[in-house]
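Re: the pair you flagged

First of the two:
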Amino acid sequence: PRLQTLDLTACKLKALPESIGKLTRLEELGLDLNPLEHLPSSLSPERVYRLRLYGLSNLPDSLVSQLTRLPHLQELSLSGGQFESLPASIGSLPRLQTLDLTACKLKALPE
């Protein structure tokens, strides 16, 4: 499959199917306004450069640990999130250039 961008904004998804891993050329994934609790392990870590997760009500540890499996992630949007803290492990993304936290309810940034 040649699909490079997939936008699933406001689809009320709690999870993505493992079959998303078949999209081996996927570079940008829009998951805004979905109550996601985790990402599938099949999500291709070699290709995903941009990930949008606008409006998460919380930021489960399981989701954060899965984000760290995306070593090529350059842009991450968590804007509009209702979470109050950001795990320090978010800093372990080696290629992250842009972290959008616009309108989040953060009380502090990790050290």
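Second of the two:
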Amino acid sequence: RRHTLFAVPNGGWRTLATGAYLKAEGTLPGVSDLILVHPHGGPTLFIEMKTPRGRLQKSQEDFQTAMIASGHRYAVCRDLDSFIDLVTDFMRQPGPNPPATTLTPLNPPC
């Protein structure tokens, strides 16, 4: 049973050309910094990392609202301890789908 945690490199300074390229590729403003996917389905955990005084931008609030409305979990973590507690709790929760005995691709390879 393995969870998948990955970072979304949305932040940082970009040139106008790079910003236009990323937008054309489908980069979504406000996406959380980290995404944790449960191995057996169920809600995904979206994690936004902020400093103790950091505030969500409007695009981040909109993304948070959309993910919660879709049945996913969203959290803002302001320090390492709260991040560890959050992820530990999420990983202990059973998913709704039992592990598959064989894997069938949903889409054929490109």
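The radius of gyration is 16 Å.

-B.
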